[in-house]
Write a structure and sequence with these properties.
Blueprint (H helix, E strand, L loop, with lengths): L5 H15 L8 H9 L12 H35 L4 H20 L22 H15 L4 H14 L3 H21 L1 H5 L2 H28 L2 H11 L8
Helix pairs in contact: 1-6, 1-7, 2-3, 3-5, 3-6, 3-7, 4-6, 4-9, 6-7
Family: Belongs to the DsbD family.
Main location: membrane
Subcellular location: Membrane
Amino acid sequence: MFEISGVGIVAAFLGGAISFLSPCVLPLAPGYVSYIAGQPAAKAGATRSFAERARSVVLSLWFVLGFSTVFVALGAGASLLGGMLLRWKYELGLAGGVLIVLFGLVMMGAIKIPAMMRDTRPDVKVDGGSAVGAYLLGLAFAFGWTPCIGPVLGSILAVTATSGADGMALLAIYSAGLGLPFLIIALFTNEIAGRLKRIGAAGRWLYRISGGLMVLMGIGVMTGQISRLAFWLLETFPALGTIG
């Protein structure tokens, strides 16, 4: 495994945060958090006690650990696949670059792939309000969200398989980026409920801009110039070199 650079760590974390802004995650997040905590649906202006907030955060953390388990396992699989196919590194780079460009175009809205515009929520009979239930729901919804957050998640898996990066570490960082907004919502559910539309509008633009950056990254992977981009980022933002 190659060591993950500071650029890779930041990119994976931001990738998780951007996935949270996808149309099938952000609008539903407060409802998920309320159900996981076994609390009433979020209402703008309503107040919660410190104990209710703390319980919501703790149970949401179990939920985050649930979907993180699935994503880290996917990262391990991508690393294993990349190691097995290392002799075709050049061909894998081309294929991975094409996939990343495709995912970026989907995020920009330039092309539409119906399978990536929806989530498939499994009908899991688990009551909210327990750590075990929250973890199981995290496992289940990881698979349900995968089609919708596929562009970013798929790009990280493609980079892992084609570069030999540590997929488990990258996907753990990605999961942290996706999970942190859930914990913030768990802490400030009612305060955020009234601002969700504005957050969603800004998030959609950020999502599209990120898609454009992914197109450039995919081209860099295909042409072998992605390393130059990483070096440029390190020269421009030296602090990235201290991460990791």
